[in-house]
Amino acid sequence: MDNFTFYSPTYFAFGKDNENEAGKYVKRFGGTKVLIHYGGGSAVKSGLLDRVKKSLENEGISFEELGGVKPNPRSGLVYKGIELCKKEGIDFVLAIGGGSVIDSSKAIAAGSLYDGDFWDFYSGKRRIEKALPIGTILTIAAAGSEGSPDSVITKEEGMLKRGSSSDALRPKFSILNPALTCTLPPYQTAAGITDIMAHLHERYLTNTKDVEVTDRLIEGLLLTMIHEGPRVIEDPNNYDARANIMWAGMLAHNNAVGVGRSQDWNSHNIEHELSALYDCAHGAGLAVTMPAVFRYVYKHDVTRFAKLATRVWGIQMDFENPERTALEGIDALENFLKRIGMPTSFAELGAKEEDIPKLVDVLCYGNGRGGSIRGFVELGVEDCKKIYKMMVK
Ligand code: NZQ
Ligand code: ZN
Predict the structure, then answer these.
(1) In angstroms, rounded to a whole number, what is the distance separating the alpha carbons of residues 102 and 37?
(2) Distance, CA of 20 to CA of 40 (rounded, Å)
(3) In this model, does residue 10 exceed pLDDT 90?
(4) CA 136/CA 54 separation, integer angstroms
(5) Which residue of 77, 102, 140 sits with most ligand 1 atoms within 8 Å of its CB, as the best mutation to test the pocket?
(6) What local confidence, expressed as pLDDT, does residue 393 receive?
(7) What pLDDT, on a 0 to 100 scale, did the predictor assign at position 368?
(8) Composition of the chain by helix, strand, coil, percent to 5
(9) Which residues, at least 6 apart from 335, have a Cβ–Cβ distance to it below 8 Å?
(10) What pLDDT is attached to residue 369?
(11) Looking at residue 323, what is its pLDDT?
């Protein structure tokens, strides 16, 4: 196991009705003037926004509102949020929504304490040292941003989708009420399940030896997703299945299961170009990307893929032909994702084969990357072209 540090200071309030205590949590973590940030309307429609506003009023906390975050959040609204925070003297950002709203909130929180262009943090020019405190009320189990130090934003010019990471972005508190996720359309629920499973795979694919504790934790979380995913697709109001998925989503990405080991992230990097260009759901993009990437790289460590196939998918080990076991595991993942309603090909994402050179160029050279992406294996321009082509089918 490699040396590591792990700092995960978020206070979690998990379970029914906790959103009505939002005001108390904001107060506890020092907020006096809040920016409430939310998405395209689900929080308004469900009455969640009104309940949160009421709980702030009950605590005598004043607030400003900024809605309209789109999935794959854009820099335009971040600039607007930063301007608002600076003008109104905001000292706390409260996100109501999923990964997109939370990531936009994180970017606003960092940009509000910075004199330059917030994109400097996403282009790799500057590191985030400080940010306004953030709280979240999660409405979809997926990205894991409620416990992660990460934020992913798309810059409209060039549709560059890039991430930034800093412990300063870890939420002070996150309210996780699984009941809030019952209104999700099945496609979004399935995209969330896929993203959670991707976060687990990106950590499982490691070059570090002897990491049994994190291997076993990841396997357990994947088994949970395989059990609960179809249950929630079948019955969207199954609170307990929603609850297990919501907590698994947090655990999958706050990095408790990724410490002390090298990680992959090639599937995420390859997918981010798809959701940037075609505005598809991140999880849906991953459903198409992961099987292709895994079939391209499995020979790098057949045993690791065979271990995943046997321990997680219950496939019999073929000792004469471990490659076969490894490939059966990848097939099992792809079939599972299809079964919960996820796409399996480029065309289903709205992606076009003729765009592959453009996708590869931004992927391998954008933001100062030197012609390759590095994870479980290093993938150059030709590798990435082949992987995108495998997705065309
Ligand atoms: O905008 P509203 O109206 O709220 O609708 C949203 C949106 O259309 C809807 N939704 C959310 N909760 C709902 C609901 N609809 C009905 N009922 C509810 N309870 O769902 C749609 C998707 O929301 P979004 O926030 O985009 O989903 P997700 O959580 O999957 O976030 C995706 C973004 O997170 C990034 C992705 O790249 C993508 O931009 N990621 C962030 C990470 C992080 N910060 O750690 C890591 C991830 O790997 C990921 O890259
Ligand atoms: Zn993801």
Answers:
(1) 8
(2) 21
(3) yes
(4) 16
(5) 140
(6) 82
(7) 78
(8) 55, 10, 30
(9) none
(10) 85
(11) 98
Q: Pairing between strand 134-138 and 150-155?
A: unpaired
Q: How is domain 186-390 classified at the architecture level of CATH?
A: Up-down Bundle (1.20)
* Residues 152-193: tens digit of each pLDDT: 999 998 888 899 999 999 999 999 999 999 999 999 999 999
Check pocket membership of 105 for ligand 1, CB cut-off 6 A: no
349-359 mean pLDDT? 96
> Rounded to whole angstroms, what are the CA distances from 6 to 131, 176, 195, 259?
19, 22, 22, 7
**pLDDT tens per residue across span 114-129:** 999 999 999 999 999 9
Ligand 1 pocket test: which of 103, 148, 164 has the largest number of ligand atoms within 8 Å of its C-beta? Answer: 103
For residue 392, how far is its CA from the centre of ligand 1 (angstroms)? 25
Q: What is the mean pLDDT of the chain?
A: 97
Give the Å distance between the CA of 140 and the centre of ligand 1.
7
Could you give the residue range(s) of every CATH 3.40.50.1970 domain in the chain?
Answer: 11-180
Ligand with the closest atom to the CA of 184: 1
Q: Show the CA angle centred on residue 202, arms to residues 201 and 207, nearest 5°.
A: 105
Assessment of whether the complete model's pTM goes beyond 0.85: yes
Ligand 1 atom at minimal distance to the Cα of residue 151? 44
Query: What residues contact 258, with CB distance under 8 A and at least 6 apart?
Result: 203, 214
Length of the chain, in residues: 393
| Domain 11-180 = CATH 3.40.640.10 | no
**Tens digits of residue pLDDT in 196-227:** 999 999 999 999 999 999 999 999 999 999 99
Q: How far is the CA of 118 from the centre of ligand 2 (A)?
A: 22
